[in-house]
Amino acid sequence: MMFLAACGEDNSEETNSDASDDEGSEETSEGPEIGQEELTQPYVAWARETVSTHMLGALLEMVGYDVELAQVEAGAMWSSVADGSADFHTSAWLPATHGAYWEQYEDDIVQVKQVLDEAPLSLGVPTYMEDINSLEDLQGNEELGEEVDWQVIGIDPGAGIMENTQTAFEAYDLDNWELTSSSEAAMLTTLQDAVENEEPIIVPLWQPHWIFGTLDLKMLEDPQEVYGGDGDQIYTVAREDLEEDAPRAYKVLEQYDESYEMIDELMPKVHAEDQDPADVVREYIDNNPDLVDEWLDGVPRE
């Protein structure tokens, strides 16, 4: 997926010190330089990440950048930022979900900003599975195991929650259980079909996610905190030297954050209503100028 933002010329050199008292001139002359004008932002097409990535792409367009949005798998998202072939991503779930990626690449990646402070994860089931409330309830559960063929329906194999789930199998002695790989979209389709027929099913789940506004679901308790206890936090991370190479972009990354209210408003439009994410975030930007002003405070706009 490619998203190219039109870029205007930097006007900072056109204003001189004699115009420093002019408010309009200050808006264009003050603030960080644009630096390199082309940026690459990799992302995985997960529920929140699709929305957040397009939001940052649109904001950076507003301040003069050309942004390529590259849809990749989780491993490539991390490795491309670490090796400098991409510039940043806003999809770092830490400390648990992407802990292995962070440990591998932390010397080459800068943690720029926490954008969401609570992102819980675990295995999940429909609420009509009343007797299944904890990961411990899966242990030795012959009846449930046979009903679902001892399968947990997973997502893409590189996702951190898949690694967490394999760890959970060991931690809770779930020797008979198998984690299948697919994609988030395929997992959700299978989950929706199962709920429609009131059939048992177990899947990895996380929040924020639009599916909780569509289906009655619950995440299983995790007494051993394999999935991070109270949950991860989500960060924007960047390659080394991005602050020096693209100061204006880096300042936007430092100021951008999210709320559940915003994400919960945008995700269903993209994933349930199948609207173009670029159109969805543009509408949100147009309807929330005060918030956009906070994100772009002190940053010249093109």
TrEMBL record:
**Keyword line:** Cell membrane, Membrane, Transport
Q: Which Pfam families match?
A: OpuAC
Q: Which SUPFAM superfamilies match?
A: Periplasmic binding protein-like II
Localization, per the record, is:
Cell membrane
Superkingdom, according to UniProt? Bacteria
Specify whether Cell membrane is a keyword of the entry. Answer: yes
Q: Does the keyword Transport apply?
A: yes
- Segments for region (Disordered): 1-38
The UniProt record lists the ABC-type glycine betaine transport system substrate-binding domain at: 43-286
Signal sequence annotation: none
Which InterPro entries does its entry note?
ABC_Gly_betaine_transp_sub-bd
Q: Where is the composition biased (Acidic residues)?
A: 10-30
Q: Which PANTHER family match?
A: GLYCINE BETAINE/PROLINE BETAINE TRANSPORT SYSTEM PERMEASE PROTEIN PROW, GLYCINE BETAINE_PROLINE BETAINE TRANSPORT SYSTEM PERMEASE PROTEIN PROW
State the protein's name: Glycine betaine/proline transport system substrate-binding protein
Classification of source organism: Bacteria, Bacillati, Bacillota, Bacilli, Bacillales
